[in-house]
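go over this chain:
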Amino acid sequence: MAQAKGAAKLRQWLSDPDKIVVAPGVHDGLTARMALSVGFDALYMTGAGTAVSRLGQPDLGLTSVDDMATNAGMIAGLDRDVPVIADADTGFGGPLMVARTTEKYILQGVAGFHLEDQITTKRCGHLLGKELVDVNTYTARIKAAAHARERMGQDIVIIARTDALQSLGYDEAILRLKAAVAAGADVAFLEGMDSKEQMSKVVKELAPTPCFLNMVGGGVTPLINSKEAKELGFKIVIWPMVGMTSVYLATREFCRELKETGEIKDRHDKDGKIDGGVRDVFEVCGLSKCSEFDKEMGGSSFLKGA
């Protein structure tokens, strides 16, 4: 089943002592296709990126479960051999809603997702003023997700995230993660770590539970490379800003050029060919594969080319 394929592969990697999963953050079809084209073996659907791309709004809990699940499913459907890990925010409500969210993510083919302990009107983990639910409310979310997974006979990876570090302190954050694992979570995710020493300590204290690392440019956590992350013992590391940052910088540059000069000049690659033209974009999104499939199936739509 498509729903189980990505989850099974992700679980296999989590049990492999030599494997670390490095996933770039993507938020739409094009950023996902670009990540796939350079060979990443896993993708991360960012909730912040979903908010900014689908709604044009900041990451302040404005997305619905349908916004998130639909976007995650589209990304997961581009290549079923590449597991997609997705942000599921707070689960969008109480246990009933969390169970429904879990079902939606499973049906969309998501391999793993993370649930956090902020209040339902949440915000990006690297913004100020986060408010948290109590530990019982948090573990009820995890239990509901684990129950829905079991009821559906699926194996989606549940990642427990806590944002308690800044407001409640390290000990409370670790307590919450251990409680979440006891409630059915497979992976622990401490958001907002502020030093390499703290990163190392978390992995050791939560062993043998696999740990998840979030690398946010401009955030509170020091940026380290995947080799360092592996040496510290992390099993999954995401770079959620990859798609957002690249789109932000490039679109700003091109819009300024068009506004100031009245045109956008072609960019050329190292061989002097135009880079980033319309056919390049279509090709990375599967133009040739689509036309080849049509021909193999006996279609005639692209006999004169595309």
